[in-house]
Specification:
single chain; 81% helix
């Protein structure tokens, strides 16, 4: 039964990511529409999994109750991640092409006029949605089935590969490879935080911190 459940999780998670990626490359590639589609897909597939296999409750996927001490330590880690991202940006800024970033934002309908709403969505809602899907649904469910190594590797890799479609127009090939490697590491760290905190609160805190740093960098390019 556990083997069957792991297959369902793998197929459903790949399907959700693939469908959202396909939408990003169609005439419907509007930021509002793709964001709504992402919310639907990242909630729909876990719900279908729960409905079919009846192994978990949906609220369990988004549990914020765990080791409170380690969760508090995650706040310090979040500040550290924020600082590391900005230090890396300052070092790599000469290799980043502003035109590619602005062009990629424009292709997705993101401008100075609507960036405040996009900023709020990405930092808060999108971070929570990805933690629900990649950590609460994929990682935590597989981990509790005792597929621990697979849970770490699969969720970490899928998290990174999923972002390729989003980042590919904004970065050069070299920077893309660097970012993919960074995303794999980030995914693995998020997974460890889920184990450490016994819930997704720690990974959510760090994810929000990372998204905040990255979106402030995008704001810098929009305003300069």
């Amino acid at each position: 039964m556990k083997h069957k459940s792991a297959i369902f999780i793998t197929v459903f998670s790949v399907s959700a990511c693939a469908l959202h990626t396909l939408m990003l490359h169609t005439q419907f590639s509007n930021y509002t529409l793709t964001s709504i589609a992402k919310i639907i897909l990242f909630v729909f597939f876990p719900l279908i999994y729960i409905k079919i296999l009846k192994e978990r409750r949906f609220k369990d996927l988004f549990s914020l109750k765990g080791n409170s001490k380690n969760t508090k330590i995650s706040l310090a880690l979040g500040f550290g991640v924020f600082a590391v991202i900005w230090i890396a940006f300052l070092i790599l800024r000469p290799f980043i092409e502003k035109e590619m970033i602005i062009g990629a934002l424009d292709n997705n309908g993101i401008t100075r006029n609507n960036f405040f709403l996009v900023f709020i969505y990405v930092v808060l809602i999108n971070a929570a949605l990805e933690e629900l899907f990649f950590r609460g649904y994929i990682f935590d469910t597989l981990y509790k089935m005792n597929y621990k190594r697979y849970a770490h590797l699969y969720s970490g890799l899928l998290f990174a590969v999923y972002h390729v479609a989003i980042l590919r127009e904004a970065l050069s090939p070299g920077m893309m490879i660097f970012c993919i490697a960074g995303l794999v590491v980030a995914g693995l760290i998020f997974n460890l935080l889920v184990v450490w905190c016994k819930c997704i609160t720690g990974s959510l805190i760090v994810h929000i911190s990372a998204n905040l740093a990255l979106n402030l960098i995008i704001l810098y390019y929009l305003l300069t």
